[in-house]
Write a structure and sequence with these properties.
Elements lengths: L4 E4 L9 H14 L7 H7 L5 H12 L7 H16 L6 H8 L4 E6 L3 H10 L3 H4 L4 E3 L11 H9 L7 E5 L2 H9 L3 E5 L6 H11 L3 E3 L2 H11 L2
Parallel strand pairs: 1-2, 1-4, 2-3, 4-5, 5-6
Helix pairs in contact: 1-2, 1-4, 4-6, 5-11
């Protein structure tokens, strides 16, 4: 079935933001007394998760409650660093522009909406996607790995799930795309441990895992209709 829509994850896929997000999360948790959640641990175990799910995971694992403003603390911390140092994943801007000439495109992110919009603006893709084609966890009841966000995005873009490709860098996002009945491609261009992440994505069941955006563009154009 020919592809009509491509949904791009944001963090670690379009924007090189995983280090920013993981460092912000780790620093906040350290201030709150949760020193075991290092930036490396956050990258390995929390990447791609909505902050509401991070809260639940930390509280379940520690048996302690996080403060009510935990998410807002993260948003402010990550936002400051995003404004200061956000960069695109190498090749992502060019890939998005090229693919948009042949397919409908949108963003589907578990990130906090303010941070996602700021990230997309910083890498120069706001004109391409526009706010109404950037879908975030706040718009659905369940974030990734549930399929809700991707199904919401496809419905809004008026494309059937089976005609949609999701591009993801995390197992959580990959599970969401597969649960939505979409084709899922993995990317490890800025992964902290590309070998480990490749294994994890393949275990989840993605169609292919790529190390760079040019490879993905060629694959979609040649093999995905």
């Amino acid at each position: 079935m020919p592809t009509e829509l491509i949904i791009f994850d944001n963090d670690g896929t379009l924007c090189d933001s995983e280090e920013i997000n993981n460092t912000a999360t780790a620093n906040i948790l350290l201030k709150l007394g949760f020193s075991q959640y290092t930036a490396e641990f956050c990258h390995e175990h929390l990447a791609g998760m909505a902050m509401s799910d991070v809260r639940e995971k930390v509280e379940n694992e520690s048996g302690k409650k996080l403060p009510d403003n935990f998410t807002s603390m993260f948003v402010q911390s990550a936002l400051l660093e995003t404004e200061r140092s956000m960069r695109p994943v190498p090749g992502s801007v060019e890939a998005a522009k090229l693919l948009s000439k042949s397919y409908k495109v949108c963003v589907g992110s578990n990130g906090e909406r303010t941070n996602v919009l700021t990230s997309i603006r910083k890498i120069g893709l706001m004109d391409l996607f526009t706010e109404d084609r950037i879908y975030t966890k706040s718009q659905v009841s369940r974030g990734k790995p549930a399929p809700d966000l991707f199904l919401h995005a496809a419905n809004a873009m008026k494309v059937a799930p089976e005609k949609t490709i999701v591009i993801e860098d995390s197992p959580s996002g990959a599970r969401a795309g597969l649960a939505a009945g979409m084709r899922v491609l993995g990317i490890t261009a800025v992964s902290h441990n590309a070998e480990s992440m490749t294994k994890n994505l393949k275990t989840v069941g993605v169609e292919r895992v790529f190390v760079s955006w040019p490879e993905i563009v060629d694959y979609i154009k040649n093999d995905c209709g």
